[in-house]
Specification:
- The chain is an alpha+beta fold and about 160 residues long.
- It has 6 helices and 5 strands.
- The longest helix has 21 residues, at about 1-20.
- It starts with a helix and ends in a 5-residue tail after the last strand.
- Mean pLDDT is about 80; it is low at about 10-35.
Length: about 160
């Protein structure tokens, strides 16, 4: 009988102990598992990671564009200005080449213009640096685009006449 009572007491103690351990709080998430509800921080980290390039452009880009014209048009962006909307600069190709190279800063969404301006990535200086990366990091030879800060981009492309 003593063995039965001892077994009962042990089982009761064991059940109480197990029940308490099952109700312990789970560990806090690590940085890798962060489930932050702060959408602004999550969005910002996504935006800062987005840098990609493509070498697409007009069908006649490869024939008529002068890369030096694109760099000259890019240099027309004022480094001290923060651009809060679409902006374009042009440079004639010169010589026997027809048309111009136009450099465009644009974002697909209005909120991205605001966010880029607030975070200092739409200054003329930043646009110049991003534009130069089309050739240096993107590997493009003439036309191309660098995508950064969500839907924002800097594009080098050909147009037949100034102001197109």
């Amino acid at each position: 009988m003593k063995l039965f009572a001892f077994t009962q007491a042990f089982l009761l103690f064991f059940v109480i102990l197990i029940q308490d351990t099952l109700s312990l709080p789970t560990s806090l998430p690590t940085d890798a598992e962060d489930t932050s509800l702060n959408l602004a921080l999550e969005t910002r980290s996504q935006l800062e990671r987005r840098d990609s390039w493509d070498c697409k452009g007009s069908g006649v880009c490869g024939i008529n564009i002068n890369p030096q014209s694109c760099l000259q048009a890019l240099a027309k962006f004022n480094p001290a200005v923060t651009y809060r909307g679409q902006a374009r600069e042009y440079q004639d190709n010169g010589g026997t080449r027809l048309g111009s190279c136009f450099v465009e800063y644009a974002c697909g969404k209005k909120k991205d213009y605001i966010s880029a301006a607030e975070n200092g990535v739409s200054t003329g200086q930043s646009i110049r640096e991003r534009g130069k990366s089309i050739y240096s990091l993107g590997g493009c030879k003439k036309c191309g685009t660098v995508w950064f800060w969500a839907s924002c981009r800097v594009t080098f492309n050909y147009c037949y006449h100034k102001g197109c």
